[in-house]
Amino acid sequence: MIIPTVYVVIIYCLLTSMIVNGAIGLNWGRENAQRLLPSTVVDILLQNNVPQARIYTSQPDILQAFCGSGINLTISILNIKAITNDTDIQSWVQKNVKFFGPANIRRVYIGNYVYDKINPQINLFEAHLKAVKAIQAALNSVGYADHIKVNLPLSHNILKDNITRPSDADFRDDLKPLIKETIRHLADKGAPFVLQMFPILYITENKLDPDFAFVGGGSRHVVRDVGGAVYTNVFEFMYDSIVWALEKAGAPSDMEVVVGHVGWPTDGYPGANTSTAERFFKGFLPFVKSNKGTPKRPGRSIDTYLHSLTDEPKNSAQQPPFSRHWGIFRSNGEPKYKIDLSGQGRDIYPAKARGIQRMPDRWCMFNGDMTNVSRVKEQVAKACDGADCTAMAPGGSCSNLNFMHNVSYAFNMFFQSKFQDERECWFEGFARVVSDVNPSTGTCVFPVEVVKGEQMNFGDRPSDGERLHHGSRAILLFFVLLISIHWIL
């Protein structure tokens, strides 16, 4: 039976009236060769009582999986080239309107990380803001003005550098006119400002006490600000910095600031590991759930989305190595560490995915042939070009391997990405398949892939510039940064 549009809107109004600010959500990116089925992801969210989620697509099969789940959903349009004119925009709306109510769609994000201070492209920001306005107008025209808000997610790098206290924060001069225009539009439509946070980067780039990263972490670094405000952790510091900048730019005092991305990576960077990620969320989630607010906005709840559900080993190589390791869950749907997604601070593992099958214990290993080391290195480069070797980056869990283990790790990552196809464990005769001994050593795990599920179709993925989670910082600068920083955690 086809439900008339008017009834869909009424049902949607009832659903959205039950939304409570300050909820904890999860982001689900799909830059994987092997991806969890959408139905499996919905099941994970429901098992763990996660009330909201953000996806980086508006793909119909994924929206269908969320229909009837009761989960508040944020969807994304990453490729704005697909919505450059009224015809394209109306086509997108008509294709997706049947999901707006049943899938409980609450927000639409246009782009992701559209401003990079190292390579600023003001015209890119302008194009995305234009798309925000156009999509919101199109949604309004089909009756969703009050129910779906269109946003432009932005990160902390839209602020001027060298902020020593939140009240000093202000937007970059080259961005101010566009930020003010963005604020006016959001305020007019009753939409929130969406902030994407990267605490680990902020701590390292500003050479702050590592303990300042954690709520209740006992940091030696304490920031005192106007009005008696005291900051003992980076989240409140970063959040209030944006609030102060918004105030200076003329934003209304009641404009909601949603945290659309915050988390802690588990590999590929100094301080990025499961124990530190567990510590980060152990203090942070009860803080969010308490609705305590921040020194600048006491007693205000903060709608927060954790990044991310799973790792994304197919994220662009232009991004720093840790960008592939945000996942709370492994590719097999098992949690990496303890985290209470309800925000109650309990010492528990979250419920894992059901129905996932692991492949046999088999690994692709270097056979030890050192007669031509240059050829071996060439094969390692080929393996890492097709698979995720970022755990071997400085500070990563596999950064202290010897040469033979490095080669084996690269070969195995490629072998597992091909679902243990023995033809993919050749590497010009330098590799062999083993099953008798697990080669994992120390902190470095040689993974075994899960049985084939849904496969990535890379033919329709957006360009790196449209998909980047962290901007296109040069990889060389990233490693220089790593070498210059020493973490004690």
From TrEMBL:
Residue spans crossing the bilayer: 6-28
Superkingdom field: Eukaryota
Signal peptide boundaries: none
Chain ranges of the X8 domain: 362-446
Keyword line: Disulfide bond, Glycosidase, Hydrolase, Membrane, Signal, Transmembrane, Transmembrane helix
The UniProt record lists the keyword Transmembrane helix: yes
The keyword Transmembrane appears for this protein: yes
Family named by the database record: Belongs to the glycosyl hydrolase 17 family.
Name the UniProt record assigns to this protein: X8 domain-containing protein
Organism: Castilleja foliolosa
